[in-house]
Amino acid sequence: MALVFVRKSEAGAPIASSPPSLLSVGDAAAYCHVSPQTIRRLIKAGKLKTYRVGRQIRIDLTDIIHCMSPS
After folding, report:
1. Considering the domain boundaries, does residue 34 fall inside one?
2. Please, which residues bridge with residue 60 across strands?
3. Within a domain: residue 60?
4. 39-42, long-range: CB within 8 Å, 24+ apart, which pairs?
5. 30: Cβ–Cβ under 8 A, 6 or more apart, which residues?
6. Domain count, the chain
7. What is the value of pTM for the model shown?
8. Exposed site from 25, 33, 43, 67, fewest CB < 10 Å?
């Protein structure tokens, strides 16, 4: 069974969107050019939201971009 993510436009018409890009802690660290420990610190501090896939921790790419962008 395939998952389809649907969101609504301002006019109310449904818009199909792609599933979120979920990265492992190691992949997120490589993307940000930091150590995996830094990513784990951000998770523990509540600055990065995580998703559990079985026993694995995954992080949404948009959350990483938002967290790492300068304010």
Report:
1. yes
2. 22
3. yes
4. 42/67
5. none
6. 1
7. 0.69
8. 33
